[in-house]
Amino acid sequence: MTSFDELLARAETLVARGGRTLLGIAGAPASGKTTLAWNLADALGNRATVVGMDGFHLAQVELRRLGRAERKGAPDTFDAHGYVHLLSRISAARETVYAPEFRREIEEPIAGAVPVPPDVPLVITEGNYLLLDSEPWAAARGLLDEAWFLAPDERDRIERLVTRHRRYGRSLVEAQQRALGSDQRNADLILPSAVRADLVVENLPLANFAI
């Protein structure tokens, strides 16, 4: 089992490289990606910032137009080309890049919400599909200097996922149906991509993290 302190030390090594470094954190829904990313960034202070893949969710109105609203969270419900292009700009570190942010309370992305100044050495990006080998997602892996894959106990992950859905207004039955339905189909797609990671983190304890 890898500890948070070990991951922080590894992130410190990435910062020490100098210049701009991109760290990707991938995993299935509710694997702890966002929690880990922000705890690392908090520990590193002004040396790191977080950019979430979820900022590239298509808007609800566009999902309805495409007939994909019920599959929100699947790979084709994101602007994957836009995400890859953003990573390319962030990697270049030529100017401040403004990334979008996904707001769960309204289930919509907000443009220009996350500034990434060129002098921040480590940018941590997290999301489900960073390591997929299908286009256009495959291009994202080539832009990451290092990639980690979170692999928690599956029962714990699903329990956290149900709790998350309930927090944002779903009933217990609705939350379970979502977690074991479309979310699980996405998880089944994501799990094989762990082979493209530099590090697989199993059963990282999240209980003591700031969430």
Mean pLDDT: 90
Strand order of the largest sheet: 2-5-1-6-7
Instruction: Give the topology string: H per helix, E per strand.
Output: HEHEHHEEEHEHHHE
Let me know the number of strands.
Answer: 7
Low-confidence stretches: none
Radius of gyration of CA atoms, rounded to a whole number: 16 Å
Structural class: alpha/beta
In DSSP terms (H or I, runs of 4 or more residues), the helix count works out at 8
Describe the structure.
The strands form 2 sheets. This protein has a 5-stranded parallel beta sheet with strand order 2-5-1-6-7. It has a two-stranded antiparallel sheet with strand order 3-4. The protein contains 8 helices and 7 strands. The chain is globular and about 50 Å long. The longest helix has 14 residues. The protein is 39% helix and 21% strand. With 211 residues, it is α/β, with parallel strands linked by helices.
